[in-house]
Amino acid sequence: MSRYFVGMTGASGQIYGERLIRALVAAGHEVDLALSPAACKVLPHELGVQVGKDGSKLGACLAGWLGSEVAAHVRTFGTDAIEAPASSGTSGIKAVLICPCSMGTLARVTAGYSSNLVERAADVALKERRTLVLVPRETPLSEIHLENMLKLRRMGTVILPAMPGFYALPQSIEELVDHVVGKVLDSIGVEHEVGAHWQGMPQPSAEDPGLEL
Ligand SMILES: Cc1cc2nc3c(=O)[nH]c(=O)nc-3n(C[C@H](O)[C@H](O)[C@H](O)COP(=O)(O)O)c2cc1C
User: How far apart are CA 137 and CA 211, in angstroms?
Assistant: First the structure.
C-alpha cells in the first residue's frame, strides 16, 4: 500500500480525477486529495459535487460523491492547507498526480510559485525528485503552455495530456476516460485493470475478411 497525492485543478475533465482516485483505491492505495480554488467551481459544474466555495465541504460530501468504501481511503485537505503532509518532503507520499491540470497550475508549478496545497505538493515532488505526473487539458496550446510543459518534462515530470486514444474502440465516456487514467497508473507503476490493454488488431478471418479497399 502506498499513499498518493491527487490534486484536482480548474481544468475541464474533473471525471479524470474522480476515476483516478477510484482506481488508486481499487488497487489498494491511499489517497490525499486537495482541490485548487478553481476546481471548487469546475467540479460542481461538471460532476455536480457541491464542495462549497473554497472546498470547505469536500470532506463532508466525499462519501456521497465516491461512496463510503472509496471515501474511507481518501483524506481530504483544504485548498490552502499548506500545513498538510504533502507540503513536506518528509511525508512519505509516493507520487503527486495533478489530474486534471489547468494551464494556470502548470505555469505556477513551472515557476515554483506555491500559492495553494496542490502547487506546493508539486513543488515538493520536484525538489525531492519524486514522481510528479501532470494531466493537462487545454486546446489549442499556446507557446507559453508548450514551453512550460517542456521545462517540466526536462525536470523529470511526466506530462500526460488528457488525450484519449480511439484505437480500442471505446463504447462510452468512461472507457475514453479510463484510457487516460490507465496511462497515469502505468506511469507510476500501479498494477491495474483500468482501460483496455492493446492486443493488436484482430486478424481478418475467412468469415470476416475485413474491408476490401
Ligand atoms: C467550466 C470551466 C472549464 C475550464 N476548463 C479549463 C481547461 O480545460 N483548461 C485550463 O487550463 N483552464 C480551464 N479553465 C480555466 C481555469 O479554471 C482558470 O484558468 C483557473 O484560474 C485555473 O486555476 P487553478 O490552476 O488554480 O485551478 C476552465 C474554467 C471553467 C470555469
Answer: 35
The pick from 8, 12, 54, 134 for probing ligand 1's pocket by mutation, whose C-beta has the most ligand atoms within 8 angstroms, reads 12
Cβ burial of 213 (10 Å; 0-12, 13-18, 19+) is: exposed
* Residues 143, 123: Cα–Cα separation, whole Å: 22
- In three-state secondary structure terms, 30 is strand
Amino acid at 41: K
Domains, the chain, in order of start with CATH, read 3-187 (3.40.50.1950)
Q: Is the CB of 9 within 6 Å of ligand 1? A: yes
Q: Quote the cell numbers at residue 32.
A: 490525499
Look over the chain and give the mean of its residue pLDDT values, rounded to a whole number: 95
The model's pLDDT over 45-75, given as tens digits with 9 standing for 90+, comes to: 999 999 998 888 999 999 999 999 999 999 9
